[in-house]
Amino acid sequence: MQTPPTNVSPEEFEKLMDCLPMACRMFELKPDGRLFFVKANPAADDLFQRKHASISGLPMEEAFPELKESVIPRSYKEVLETGNNWRYQGGFFRQNGAFLGLFNVNVFRISSNRLASFSSPHDGQETEIIFHQKKMDVEKINISYPNVEPKKILSGDLHVDAIQNLRAPRIPVFDDQADDELNGLDFDFTDLFTINELEKIQDAFTNVTNVASIITLPDGQPITRTSNFCLLCDLIRQTPKGMANCVQSDALIGKPNPHGPTLRPCLSAGLWDGGASIIIAGKHVANWLVGQVRLSPKPNTDRLMHYAEEVGADPTQLVEAYESVPVMPFAEFYRVCHSLFLFANLISDMAYQNLRLVRAHMMQEQTAKALQASESRLQNLSSKLILTQEEERRQLAIELHDGIGQSLTAVKFSVDNILLNIDNPDLNIRDITKTASQIIKASIADVRRMQVELRPRILDELGIIATINWFCREFKSIYTHINLNINVDVEEEQVSPQLKPAVFRIIQEAFNNAAKYFEGDEISLSFTEKGGRLHLEIKDNGIGFDLDEVLSSRELNRGLGLDSMRERAELCNGVLEIISSEGQGATIKASWPAA
């Protein structure tokens, strides 16, 4: 049937279809955009071995679940929209999943919202070399991964759709493995299997099923050597154009299809091939392809000779080689490809488990290295901390002895001098007292300085924002040659009480390090809130330093200071990053959750 019966109304056609000897089904497009099954004639009941009356009036996806994720709904809507007829070949299945057969389907629009599909058994006489009715331009075959749209190859007046557009009941495929630790992991298929292992599996499958086989990359480039390839395909693959056609065909047939094997004539020799994807952790890594069989023994010599000339092969050899290609009934070939799909899934699962083992081993090695580095860092930090504590105590003892201690001694000497000479009329008590007062004021200033170094009172009394501003003013008054760029844009209540000392000490340590070592003239400080987190950044334009070298050096104050900044940040549930290299200045970035 090449043209629709346009001389009858939809109502009349619905009555007429019951008398038609050809299987017919009718569908209707509702205003909500869904297709509904209307009815089927008795011939359809007989052909498809089911009673359609029980599903009349149901949405297509409920009436025919096997069509839900196929191109059929979309294509039927295109027929209604454009009025163009559509003809395809598809594999049909019984409700229990058993393969029913390969059918020709013709779809016609009978009204603006109704269409009819006529089905008849497919004899398989023309399909295997249908693609050679017109010259094939391989460069125009556009294949993308992993979401390849199903292709329709136009040949004469016939559209041929891949069998994967219709599906058997879904078999789980390992394309949705979703372990977070595997996301973004860079690997190749051959990282998880040796070529020898793959070829043994491939050969075993070939020996049992008597089909040809090869495993390729997603783009069709071979991974394994060929198994049981027929002479016809060997002759074609010996030519550059023929090999290019084979690679493109393998890529198309092996594209991801989670519902079952992909079956279709290859784009090169025209023989029937089947393919299944190997997908690991959501990544399409390989294709497993089988086939090189004929559905009918009758060759089309003219087409074979034309294709031989197209790819540069010997026409006579190609025709002779075609006679040796095995003939296999479609139902048997489907069962072979169905087994291939199951094996490909098993390999996907094996590779997935191998990948998890590889990942676990990598994580174990990384953890061991991190633990070793952490222990070394902790040991180094503890050593520096002990020595630094002793150094701080020594410095405090010196300051107490040389500063406050000597000041108190001087005051005591002045007071003793007054007591011893209080009756001496020539004693200038005012001058002595004035000198003692000045000494006491200097001592008080030393005590306050030491107190600020231990913990400034302004931090507890006025908060972190006032402390930052005060500290920057004090720093600028001492280091007048350094230009400061300050940007503080946080609310006081966004900084928790536990975090305020950490922020101040990190700023204090960073500024003091810059003043001592950086040899620059500008420091930028930014303390802001964004997205519920507090962000601190301190950047200078100095000479920079090698971070690893400083942290491992014997220069206690500087190495300990950088380590202590990171420790302070992490103890407050934050992170700190130090970025520096020689000649490039230094940047310290830290962030914490806002209160």
Question: SSE layout and pairings?
Answer:
Elements: H1 10-16, E1 23-29, E2 35-40, H2 42-48, H3 60-63, H4 72-82, E3 86-93, E4 99-109, E5 114-121, E6 152-155, E7 158-161, H5 195-209, E8 212-216, H6 231-237, H7 240-253, E9 262-265, E10 272-280, E11 283-293, H8 301-311, H9 315-322, H10 330-420, H11 429-454, H12 457-461, H13 464-478, E12 483-489, H14 499-518, E13 522-530, E14 533-540, H15 547-551, H16 556-571, E15 575-580, E16 586-593
Parallel strand pairs: 12-13
Antiparallel strand pairs: 1-2, 1-5, 3-4, 4-5, 6-7, 8-11, 9-10, 10-11, 13-14, 14-16, 15-16
What structural class do the secondary elements suggest?
alpha+beta
Distance between the termini: 75 Å
Overall pLDDT metric: 78
Number of strands: 16
- Main sheet? 5 strands, antiparallel
Q: Helical region count?
A: 16
Oligomer: single chain
Low-confidence stretches: 124-178
Strand order of the largest sheet: 2-1-5-4-3
Anisotropy-based shape? elongated
Bin the helical content. 40-55%
Rg on CA atoms, Å: 42 Å
- Percentage beta strand: 15-25%
Describe this structure as you would to a colleague.
With 595 residues, the protein is an alpha+beta fold. Helix content is 44%, strand content 19%. It has 16 helices and 16 strands. The strands form four sheets. It has a five-stranded antiparallel sheet with strand order 2-1-5-4-3. It has a five-stranded mixed sheet with strand order 12-13-14-16-15, covered by helices on one side. A four-stranded antiparallel sheet has the order 8-11-10-9, sandwiched between helices. Helix 8 (301-311) packs across helix 9. The chain starts with 9 loop residues before the first helix and ends with a strand. 34% of the residues are buried. Residues 124-178 have low confidence and may be disordered.
